[in-house]
Amino acid sequence: MTPKSAALKAALLGTALTISTAGYAQDIKIGFNGDLSASPSAQSGQAGVLGIQAAIEDINAAGGILGRKMTLVVRDDLSQPPKSIQNMSDLIDNEKVVTVLGPTNSGNALAWKHIPNQKKNPSIGCIGSATDITKAAGGENYMYRVSMVDRAQVAGLIAYAKNNPSTKNVGYLVETTGYGQGGLKDLQELGDAKGLKPVATEKFGVNDTDMTSQLNKMKAAGVDTVLVWAQGTPIGQLVRSMEKINYFPVTLTSWSSDNASFFDTAGKTLAEKPIFMRTITEDRTPKQQQLYDRLAPKLTSKSAFSFAAHCYDATMIAAAAIKQAGSTEGPKMREALENLQAPVDGIMKTYNKPFSATEHEALTASDYRWTHWKDGKLVSYSDDVVKALKPSDFTQ
Question: For this UniProt entry, which residues form the secretion signal (predicted)?
Fold first, then answer.
Protein backbone atom coordinates (compact mmCIF):
# COMPACT_ATOMS: atom_id res chain seq x y z
CA MET A 1 0.00 0.00 0.00
CA THR A 2 1.39 3.42 -0.97
CA PRO A 3 1.85 6.14 1.66
CA LYS A 4 -1.03 8.08 0.07
CA SER A 5 -3.27 5.00 0.20
CA ALA A 6 -2.34 4.35 3.82
CA ALA A 7 -3.06 7.95 4.76
CA LEU A 8 -6.40 7.88 2.96
CA LYS A 9 -7.40 4.60 4.59
CA ALA A 10 -6.61 6.06 8.01
CA ALA A 11 -8.60 9.17 7.18
CA LEU A 12 -11.58 7.19 5.91
CA LEU A 13 -11.69 4.93 8.94
CA GLY A 14 -10.90 7.68 11.41
CA THR A 15 -13.42 10.14 10.06
CA ALA A 16 -16.16 7.54 9.86
CA LEU A 17 -15.58 6.26 13.36
CA THR A 18 -15.44 9.76 14.76
CA ILE A 19 -18.71 10.62 13.06
CA SER A 20 -20.44 7.48 14.27
CA THR A 21 -19.40 7.80 17.90
CA ALA A 22 -19.81 11.56 18.21
CA GLY A 23 -23.35 11.55 16.81
CA TYR A 24 -26.51 11.46 18.84
CA ALA A 25 -28.58 8.32 19.38
CA GLN A 26 -31.12 9.47 16.85
CA ASP A 27 -28.57 9.59 14.02
CA ILE A 28 -29.23 7.15 11.18
CA LYS A 29 -26.14 5.03 10.70
CA ILE A 30 -25.18 3.28 7.47
CA GLY A 31 -22.17 1.03 7.05
CA PHE A 32 -19.47 0.33 4.50
CA ASN A 33 -17.79 -3.07 4.49
CA GLY A 34 -15.05 -3.53 1.91
CA ASP A 35 -11.35 -3.71 1.17
CA LEU A 36 -9.50 -0.46 1.80
CA SER A 37 -5.93 -1.71 1.95
CA ALA A 38 -5.18 -5.29 0.90
CA SER A 39 -5.99 -6.13 -2.73
CA PRO A 40 -5.36 -4.32 -6.03
CA SER A 41 -9.02 -3.27 -5.84
CA ALA A 42 -8.59 -1.41 -2.53
CA GLN A 43 -8.47 1.92 -4.34
CA SER A 44 -12.01 1.18 -5.54
CA GLY A 45 -13.14 0.72 -1.94
CA GLN A 46 -11.46 3.96 -0.93
CA ALA A 47 -13.22 5.82 -3.75
CA GLY A 48 -16.52 4.23 -2.73
CA VAL A 49 -16.23 5.52 0.83
CA LEU A 50 -15.45 9.01 -0.46
CA GLY A 51 -18.62 8.88 -2.55
CA ILE A 52 -20.72 7.79 0.43
CA GLN A 53 -19.26 10.54 2.60
CA ALA A 54 -20.02 13.14 -0.07
CA ALA A 55 -23.64 11.96 -0.30
CA ILE A 56 -24.02 12.05 3.47
CA GLU A 57 -22.66 15.60 3.53
CA ASP A 58 -25.25 16.64 0.95
CA ILE A 59 -28.09 14.81 2.72
CA ASN A 60 -27.26 16.36 6.08
CA ALA A 61 -26.79 19.82 4.56
CA ALA A 62 -30.35 19.51 3.22
CA GLY A 63 -31.73 18.71 6.66
CA GLY A 64 -31.04 15.00 6.96
CA ILE A 65 -33.72 12.29 6.80
CA LEU A 66 -36.83 12.21 8.94
CA GLY A 67 -35.31 15.08 10.89
CA ARG A 68 -32.23 13.00 11.72
CA LYS A 69 -28.63 13.19 10.53
CA MET A 70 -27.01 10.34 8.63
CA THR A 71 -23.62 9.01 9.71
CA LEU A 72 -21.22 6.39 8.36
CA VAL A 73 -19.40 3.49 9.99
CA VAL A 74 -16.55 1.98 7.95
CA ARG A 75 -14.99 -1.47 8.23
CA ASP A 76 -11.99 -2.67 6.20
CA ASP A 77 -12.42 -6.35 5.34
CA LEU A 78 -8.84 -6.69 4.06
CA SER A 79 -10.21 -8.58 1.03
CA GLN A 80 -10.74 -11.62 3.29
CA PRO A 81 -14.14 -13.39 3.27
CA PRO A 82 -13.98 -14.41 6.98
CA LYS A 83 -13.16 -10.83 7.98
CA SER A 84 -15.91 -9.50 5.72
CA ILE A 85 -18.45 -11.87 7.30
CA GLN A 86 -17.35 -10.74 10.77
CA ASN A 87 -17.70 -7.10 9.72
CA MET A 88 -21.26 -7.65 8.53
CA SER A 89 -22.36 -9.06 11.86
CA ASP A 90 -20.56 -6.27 13.72
CA LEU A 91 -22.12 -3.53 11.62
CA ILE A 92 -25.65 -4.89 11.79
CA ASP A 93 -25.73 -6.31 15.33
CA ASN A 94 -23.41 -3.97 17.23
CA GLU A 95 -23.36 -0.71 15.27
CA LYS A 96 -27.06 -1.02 14.38
CA VAL A 97 -26.58 0.32 10.85
CA VAL A 98 -29.74 0.42 8.76
CA THR A 99 -28.00 -0.67 5.56
CA VAL A 100 -24.53 -1.79 4.47
CA LEU A 101 -22.85 -0.62 1.26
CA GLY A 102 -20.00 -2.42 -0.48
CA PRO A 103 -18.12 -4.67 -0.63
CA THR A 104 -15.08 -4.07 -2.82
CA ASN A 105 -14.59 -7.72 -3.77
CA SER A 106 -17.39 -9.84 -5.25
CA GLY A 107 -16.25 -13.00 -3.49
CA ASN A 108 -16.85 -11.42 -0.10
CA ALA A 109 -20.42 -10.44 -0.97
CA LEU A 110 -21.09 -14.00 -2.10
CA ALA A 111 -19.69 -15.24 1.22
CA TRP A 112 -22.07 -13.18 3.36
CA LYS A 113 -25.15 -12.47 1.21
CA HIS A 114 -27.18 -14.72 3.51
CA ILE A 115 -26.63 -12.34 6.44
CA PRO A 116 -28.66 -9.35 5.13
CA ASN A 117 -31.42 -11.77 4.16
CA GLN A 118 -31.47 -13.43 7.57
CA LYS A 119 -31.30 -10.17 9.50
CA LYS A 120 -33.63 -8.28 7.13
CA ASN A 121 -31.07 -5.53 6.67
CA PRO A 122 -30.79 -4.17 3.10
CA SER A 123 -27.38 -4.31 1.45
CA ILE A 124 -26.72 -2.06 -1.55
CA GLY A 125 -23.64 -3.06 -3.50
CA CYS A 126 -21.80 -0.31 -5.35
CA ILE A 127 -18.50 -1.93 -6.39
CA GLY A 128 -18.49 -5.75 -6.61
CA SER A 129 -19.99 -6.94 -9.90
CA ALA A 130 -20.41 -10.73 -9.65
CA THR A 131 -23.67 -11.78 -11.27
CA ASP A 132 -24.93 -13.91 -8.38
CA ILE A 133 -24.65 -11.22 -5.70
CA THR A 134 -28.21 -9.99 -6.15
CA LYS A 135 -29.78 -13.30 -7.16
CA ALA A 136 -32.45 -14.51 -4.77
CA ALA A 137 -31.47 -17.58 -2.80
CA GLY A 138 -34.94 -18.45 -1.55
CA GLY A 139 -37.08 -16.29 0.68
CA GLU A 140 -36.92 -12.49 0.79
CA ASN A 141 -34.00 -10.91 -1.03
CA TYR A 142 -32.32 -7.94 0.68
CA MET A 143 -29.40 -7.69 -1.79
CA TYR A 144 -29.46 -4.71 -4.18
CA ARG A 145 -26.85 -3.08 -6.39
CA VAL A 146 -25.91 0.23 -8.04
CA SER A 147 -22.94 -0.89 -10.10
CA MET A 148 -22.01 -2.91 -13.13
CA VAL A 149 -22.98 -6.57 -13.37
CA ASP A 150 -20.65 -9.21 -14.75
CA ARG A 151 -23.29 -10.93 -16.83
CA ALA A 152 -24.34 -7.67 -18.53
CA GLN A 153 -20.69 -6.92 -19.29
CA VAL A 154 -20.16 -10.43 -20.63
CA ALA A 155 -23.23 -10.01 -22.84
CA GLY A 156 -21.58 -6.95 -24.32
CA LEU A 157 -18.25 -8.69 -24.92
CA ILE A 158 -19.99 -11.69 -26.49
CA ALA A 159 -22.02 -9.34 -28.70
CA TYR A 160 -18.87 -7.56 -29.85
CA ALA A 161 -17.06 -10.79 -30.69
CA LYS A 162 -20.12 -12.31 -32.35
CA ASN A 163 -20.80 -9.23 -34.51
CA ASN A 164 -17.21 -8.52 -35.48
CA PRO A 165 -16.71 -9.84 -39.03
CA SER A 166 -13.00 -10.28 -38.28
CA THR A 167 -13.68 -12.79 -35.51
CA LYS A 168 -12.89 -16.34 -36.57
CA ASN A 169 -11.79 -18.10 -33.37
CA VAL A 170 -12.39 -16.97 -29.80
CA GLY A 171 -10.69 -18.04 -26.60
CA TYR A 172 -11.53 -17.55 -22.91
CA LEU A 173 -8.83 -16.54 -20.41
CA VAL A 174 -9.78 -16.18 -16.73
CA GLU A 175 -8.16 -16.00 -13.33
CA THR A 176 -8.71 -18.81 -10.85
CA THR A 177 -10.39 -16.68 -8.16
CA GLY A 178 -14.11 -16.70 -7.45
CA TYR A 179 -14.34 -13.55 -9.55
CA GLY A 180 -12.68 -15.23 -12.52
CA GLN A 181 -14.67 -18.43 -12.22
CA GLY A 182 -17.94 -16.52 -11.99
CA GLY A 183 -16.98 -14.68 -15.16
CA LEU A 184 -16.13 -17.94 -16.90
CA LYS A 185 -19.55 -19.33 -16.02
CA ASP A 186 -21.20 -16.28 -17.60
CA LEU A 187 -18.94 -16.49 -20.65
CA GLN A 188 -19.74 -20.14 -21.22
CA GLU A 189 -23.49 -19.79 -20.69
CA LEU A 190 -23.95 -16.68 -22.80
CA GLY A 191 -21.45 -17.83 -25.41
CA ASP A 192 -23.35 -21.10 -25.82
CA ALA A 193 -26.66 -19.22 -26.02
CA LYS A 194 -25.29 -16.94 -28.74
CA GLY A 195 -23.57 -19.72 -30.66
CA LEU A 196 -20.07 -18.51 -29.81
CA LYS A 197 -17.86 -21.53 -29.14
CA PRO A 198 -14.33 -21.00 -27.81
CA VAL A 199 -11.55 -23.03 -29.40
CA ALA A 200 -9.47 -22.70 -26.23
CA THR A 201 -10.07 -21.95 -22.53
CA GLU A 202 -7.18 -21.21 -20.19
CA LYS A 203 -6.77 -20.06 -16.58
CA PHE A 204 -4.08 -18.26 -14.58
CA GLY A 205 -3.44 -17.31 -10.96
CA VAL A 206 -4.20 -13.81 -9.75
CA ASN A 207 -0.54 -13.39 -8.77
CA ASP A 208 0.95 -14.92 -11.94
CA THR A 209 3.40 -12.72 -13.82
CA ASP A 210 3.94 -14.86 -16.92
CA MET A 211 1.03 -16.16 -19.00
CA THR A 212 3.04 -17.02 -22.12
CA SER A 213 2.23 -20.74 -21.77
CA GLN A 214 -1.51 -20.08 -21.88
CA LEU A 215 -1.10 -17.55 -24.68
CA ASN A 216 0.98 -19.92 -26.79
CA LYS A 217 -1.84 -22.45 -26.55
CA MET A 218 -4.27 -19.75 -27.67
CA LYS A 219 -2.01 -18.83 -30.55
CA ALA A 220 -1.63 -22.47 -31.61
CA ALA A 221 -5.43 -22.83 -31.60
CA GLY A 222 -5.75 -19.86 -33.95
CA VAL A 223 -7.46 -17.58 -31.44
CA ASP A 224 -7.85 -14.09 -32.91
CA THR A 225 -10.20 -12.73 -30.22
CA VAL A 226 -9.68 -13.41 -26.53
CA LEU A 227 -12.24 -12.69 -23.81
CA VAL A 228 -10.56 -12.10 -20.46
CA TRP A 229 -12.08 -12.12 -16.97
CA ALA A 230 -9.63 -11.10 -14.26
CA GLN A 231 -8.61 -8.27 -11.95
CA GLY A 232 -6.50 -5.32 -13.03
CA THR A 233 -2.99 -6.45 -12.12
CA PRO A 234 -3.16 -9.90 -13.77
CA ILE A 235 -4.67 -8.38 -16.93
CA GLY A 236 -1.65 -6.06 -16.95
CA GLN A 237 0.65 -9.09 -16.68
CA LEU A 238 -1.32 -10.74 -19.48
CA VAL A 239 -0.70 -7.96 -22.00
CA ARG A 240 2.97 -7.89 -20.96
CA SER A 241 3.06 -11.60 -21.71
CA MET A 242 1.46 -10.93 -25.10
CA GLU A 243 4.33 -8.59 -25.85
CA LYS A 244 6.88 -11.29 -24.96
CA ILE A 245 5.61 -13.56 -27.75
CA ASN A 246 4.41 -10.77 -30.07
CA TYR A 247 0.87 -12.08 -30.04
CA PHE A 248 -1.88 -9.48 -29.82
CA PRO A 249 -5.36 -10.88 -30.51
CA VAL A 250 -8.37 -8.59 -30.11
CA THR A 251 -8.57 -8.39 -26.32
CA LEU A 252 -11.98 -7.90 -24.69
CA THR A 253 -11.82 -7.75 -20.91
CA SER A 254 -13.76 -7.21 -17.70
CA TRP A 255 -13.99 -3.63 -16.48
CA SER A 256 -11.00 -4.31 -14.22
CA SER A 257 -8.85 -2.95 -17.03
CA ASP A 258 -10.01 0.50 -15.92
CA ASN A 259 -8.05 0.03 -12.70
CA ALA A 260 -4.86 1.99 -12.12
CA SER A 261 -3.24 -1.29 -11.05
CA PHE A 262 -3.76 -2.54 -14.62
CA PHE A 263 -2.36 0.64 -16.17
CA ASP A 264 0.65 0.68 -13.85
CA THR A 265 1.41 -2.99 -14.56
CA ALA A 266 0.86 -2.83 -18.32
CA GLY A 267 2.48 0.52 -18.96
CA LYS A 268 1.08 3.32 -21.11
CA THR A 269 1.49 1.65 -24.52
CA LEU A 270 0.30 -1.88 -23.70
CA ALA A 271 -2.58 -0.49 -21.62
CA GLU A 272 -4.20 0.63 -24.88
CA LYS A 273 -4.69 -2.95 -26.10
CA PRO A 274 -7.86 -4.07 -24.22
CA ILE A 275 -11.40 -2.95 -24.97
CA PHE A 276 -13.89 -3.08 -22.10
CA MET A 277 -17.04 -1.55 -20.65
CA ARG A 278 -17.46 0.79 -17.69
CA THR A 279 -19.95 3.38 -16.52
CA ILE A 280 -17.91 6.60 -16.64
CA THR A 281 -15.17 7.78 -19.00
CA GLU A 282 -13.28 11.06 -19.23
CA ASP A 283 -16.36 12.34 -21.10
CA ARG A 284 -18.14 13.10 -17.85
CA THR A 285 -21.55 14.73 -17.54
CA PRO A 286 -21.72 18.09 -15.71
CA LYS A 287 -22.94 16.37 -12.51
CA GLN A 288 -20.20 13.76 -12.74
CA GLN A 289 -17.60 16.46 -13.34
CA GLN A 290 -18.83 18.41 -10.32
CA LEU A 291 -18.45 15.40 -8.01
CA TYR A 292 -15.12 14.50 -9.63
CA ASP A 293 -13.72 17.99 -8.98
CA ARG A 294 -14.92 17.73 -5.39
CA LEU A 295 -13.28 14.35 -4.73
CA ALA A 296 -10.26 14.35 -7.06
CA PRO A 297 -7.79 15.70 -4.47
CA LYS A 298 -8.61 12.71 -2.22
CA LEU A 299 -8.71 9.95 -4.85
CA THR A 300 -5.68 7.66 -4.78
CA SER A 301 -6.64 6.62 -8.30
CA LYS A 302 -8.57 8.92 -10.63
CA SER A 303 -9.76 5.86 -12.59
CA ALA A 304 -11.65 4.66 -9.50
CA PHE A 305 -13.98 7.67 -9.60
CA SER A 306 -16.83 5.60 -11.06
CA PHE A 307 -17.10 3.71 -7.75
CA ALA A 308 -17.43 7.00 -5.89
CA ALA A 309 -20.33 7.88 -8.20
CA HIS A 310 -21.97 4.46 -7.75
CA CYS A 311 -21.71 4.65 -3.96
CA TYR A 312 -22.94 8.25 -3.89
CA ASP A 313 -26.05 7.15 -5.79
CA ALA A 314 -26.53 4.07 -3.61
CA THR A 315 -26.52 6.31 -0.54
CA MET A 316 -29.08 8.63 -2.12
CA ILE A 317 -31.34 5.70 -3.02
CA ALA A 318 -31.09 4.35 0.54
CA ALA A 319 -32.00 7.78 1.90
CA ALA A 320 -34.98 7.98 -0.48
CA ALA A 321 -36.20 4.58 0.73
CA ILE A 322 -35.96 5.64 4.39
CA LYS A 323 -37.82 8.86 3.64
CA GLN A 324 -40.59 7.07 1.75
CA ALA A 325 -40.91 4.34 4.38
CA GLY A 326 -40.88 6.85 7.21
CA SER A 327 -38.80 4.25 8.99
CA THR A 328 -35.36 2.61 9.20
CA GLU A 329 -36.82 -0.85 9.78
CA GLY A 330 -35.40 -3.31 7.27
CA PRO A 331 -38.66 -4.79 5.93
CA LYS A 332 -40.16 -1.32 5.45
CA MET A 333 -36.99 -0.11 3.69
CA ARG A 334 -37.12 -3.16 1.44
CA GLU A 335 -40.72 -2.43 0.47
CA ALA A 336 -39.79 1.17 -0.32
CA LEU A 337 -36.67 0.22 -2.31
CA GLU A 338 -38.75 -2.04 -4.52
CA ASN A 339 -41.37 0.63 -5.18
CA LEU A 340 -39.77 4.07 -4.97
CA GLN A 341 -42.40 6.63 -5.85
CA ALA A 342 -40.20 9.67 -6.42
CA PRO A 343 -37.28 9.84 -8.87
CA VAL A 344 -33.82 9.88 -7.29
CA ASP A 345 -31.49 12.40 -8.88
CA GLY A 346 -28.11 10.68 -8.96
CA ILE A 347 -24.65 11.15 -10.40
CA MET A 348 -25.00 8.32 -12.90
CA LYS A 349 -28.55 9.17 -13.93
CA THR A 350 -32.00 9.93 -12.58
CA TYR A 351 -33.38 6.69 -11.12
CA ASN A 352 -37.05 6.02 -11.80
CA LYS A 353 -38.12 2.94 -9.84
CA PRO A 354 -34.61 1.43 -9.99
CA PHE A 355 -35.67 -1.74 -8.16
CA SER A 356 -38.67 -4.04 -8.08
CA ALA A 357 -39.51 -7.28 -6.29
CA THR A 358 -37.70 -9.22 -9.02
CA GLU A 359 -35.14 -6.69 -10.34
CA HIS A 360 -32.41 -5.62 -7.93
CA GLU A 361 -30.02 -3.97 -10.40
CA ALA A 362 -30.21 -0.17 -10.72
CA LEU A 363 -27.75 0.03 -13.64
CA THR A 364 -28.19 -1.97 -16.83
CA ALA A 365 -26.19 -2.50 -20.02
CA SER A 366 -27.71 0.70 -21.44
CA ASP A 367 -25.80 2.62 -18.75
CA TYR A 368 -22.43 1.13 -19.76
CA ARG A 369 -19.85 2.77 -22.02
CA TRP A 370 -17.33 1.09 -24.31
CA THR A 371 -13.95 2.25 -23.08
CA HIS A 372 -10.20 1.97 -23.58
CA TRP A 373 -7.04 3.68 -22.41
CA LYS A 374 -5.63 6.35 -24.73
CA ASP A 375 -2.66 8.54 -23.84
CA GLY A 376 -3.07 7.60 -20.20
CA LYS A 377 -6.76 8.47 -20.02
CA LEU A 378 -9.94 6.40 -19.95
CA VAL A 379 -11.85 7.51 -23.03
CA SER A 380 -14.88 6.30 -24.94
CA TYR A 381 -14.17 3.63 -27.54
CA SER A 382 -16.04 3.28 -30.80
CA ASP A 383 -15.58 1.41 -34.04
CA ASP A 384 -17.86 -0.02 -36.72
CA VAL A 385 -18.72 -3.02 -34.53
CA VAL A 386 -19.74 -0.88 -31.54
CA LYS A 387 -21.75 1.45 -33.76
CA ALA A 388 -23.68 -1.46 -35.26
CA LEU A 389 -24.63 -3.10 -31.93
CA LYS A 390 -28.33 -3.05 -31.06
CA PRO A 391 -30.08 -3.44 -27.68
CA SER A 392 -31.18 -6.92 -28.72
CA ASP A 393 -27.52 -7.94 -28.99
CA PHE A 394 -27.17 -7.55 -25.20
CA THR A 395 -29.89 -10.01 -24.21
CA GLN A 396 -28.94 -12.30 -21.36
Answer: 1-25
